[in-house]
DNA sequence: GCAATTACGCACCTTTTGGTAACTATAGAA
DNA sequence: TTCTATAGTTACCAAAAGGTGCGTAATTGC
């Protein structure tokens, strides 16, 4: 008799370092430029498609729709279709989405605070190897 | 006389929503599954290549090297080559890297806390459309 | 009647990400 | 002598991310 451990159930304590743990999937979902920015933007309040495009600056219609759909699918974003013509669709954060946006805003602040340090390091690194 | 605004300098207040702002680049750097996990892992202390592979569980040698190199280039990770044979290379967090890891750990905790909510939402969403 | 508006869907294409396998060098162990 | 371990690199290939342009619906304004 042999015991197959490859399909063993995930350990009781969730761990993002465990590739089979579902929390890893949750992390991968938000480890995306557009997902992060969309959730941060929606923290300012419900927004329509066009408003989000303006806020994000350079997202394509395709990527915006695609990312919003994934976020809605995972319950982070709520999509409300007023079913009018011309269309009127509003996106907002769900309670879970809002619990995430707080942390993401901290990340935004980190980027805005330390980007100059990264820029300098990158310049030093590149200058050293191009010789 | 025409004024070209396309190359206008970035505003004085850094903003991740401004595509031309360098802080956006910083955000994109860490908006990556492997970058996030590597920095979180290094928070536990300096690690060698093989130890990181074990900790991350399912990263390929190629992606690990590639991501570490980008993080080193931007000054988040410090690479110390002891120049011995067989090779001995240690990776650790720089001060900026450490300032980031604190926030990333909060993200990890978020994923480990709320993944079940996401799983449930996803299942509901998929069940509704496959009919 | 014609154009604009809105939030998409779809087809096509390019770029980036990621995986696999083979190769490098040398010390120490079997 | 051959095997193992170390931390990579390179070439090749598959998959995912991402961009562009076109089509769609009905209502409002000209």
Which secondary structure elements does this structure contain, and how are they paired or packed?
2 copies of one chain form a homodimer.
Chain A: H1 22-30, H2 33-42, E1 47-48, H3 49-56, H4 61-73, E2 77-81, E3 89-93, H5 95-129
Antiparallel strand pairs in A: 1-3, 2-3
Helix pairs in contact in A: 2-5
The structure holds a DNA duplex (30 and 30 nucleotides).
GO molecular function, one term (chains A, B): DNA binding
Protein name (chains A, B): PadR family transcriptional regulator
Domain HTH hxlR-type (chains A, B): 21-119
Verbal overview:
The structure is a homodimer of 131-residue chains. Chain A is mostly helical and 131 residues long. Chain A has one domain: Winged helix-like DNA-binding domain superfamily/Winged helix DNA-binding domain (Arc Repressor Mutant, subunit A), CATH 1.10.10. In chain A, 57% of the residues lie in helices and 9% in strands. The first copy, chain A, contains five helices and three strands. In chain A, strands 1-3-2 form a three-stranded antiparallel beta sheet. In chain A, a hairpin with a 7-residue loop joins strand 2 and strand 3. Chain A is globular and about 60 Å long. Chain A starts with 21 loop residues before the first helix and ends with a helix. Chain A binds a DNA duplex (30 and 30 nucleotides) through residues 32, 48-50, 60-63, 65-66, 81, 84-89. Chains A, B: Pfam families: HxlR. Chains A, B: InterPro entries: ArsR-like_HTH, HTH_HxlR, WH-like_DNA-bd_sf, WH_DNA-bd_sf. Chains A, B: Residues 21-119 form the HTH hxlR-type domain. Chains A, B: This is PadR family transcriptional regulator. Chains A, B: GO terms for molecular function: DNA binding.
């Amino acid at each position: 008799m042999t015991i197959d451990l490859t399909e063993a159930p995930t350990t009781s304590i969730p761990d993002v370092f465990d590739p089979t743990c579902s929390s890893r999937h949750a992390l991968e979902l938000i480890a995306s430029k557009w997902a992060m920015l969309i959730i941060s933007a929606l923290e300012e309040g419900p927004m329509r498609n066009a408003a989000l495009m303006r806020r994000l600056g350079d997202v394509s219609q395709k990527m915006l729709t695609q990312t919003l759909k994934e976020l809605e699918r995972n319950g982070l974003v709520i999509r409300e279709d007023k079913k009018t013509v011309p269309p009127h669709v509003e996106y907002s954060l769900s309670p879970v989405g809002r619990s995430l946006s707080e942390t993401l805003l901290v990340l935004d602040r980190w980027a805005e605070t330390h980007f100059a340090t990264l820029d300098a390091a990158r310049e030093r690194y590149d200058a050293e190897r191009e010789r």
